């Protein structure tokens, strides 16, 4: 496994930010709709985005030990 490039780190950080926003939007939608089926669907979508976020975080943690300790 090779260390992540700065560009890859930026992409992952942006993706995590997007997933976090989607989690919050789906949770807000789930709590505001009257239709229970739509609320359930929104919560499922929030859970899926949480899985994506966790996957990205796990990827960063796996590569953390490869990162240089001093800036280049």
UniProtKB/TrEMBL annotation:
SUPFAM superfamilies: Ferritin-like. This is Spore coat protein. InterPro entries: Ferritin-like_SF.
């Amino acid at each position: 496994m090779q260390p992540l490039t700065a560009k890859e780190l930026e992409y992952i950080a942006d993706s995590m930010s997007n997933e976090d926003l989607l989690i919050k939007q789906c949770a807000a939608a789930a709590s505001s709709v009257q239709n229970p089926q739509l609320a359930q669907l929104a919560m499922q979508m929030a859970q899926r985005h949480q899985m994506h976020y966790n996957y990205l975080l796990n990827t960063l943690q796996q590569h953390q030990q490869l990162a240089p300790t001093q800036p280049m």
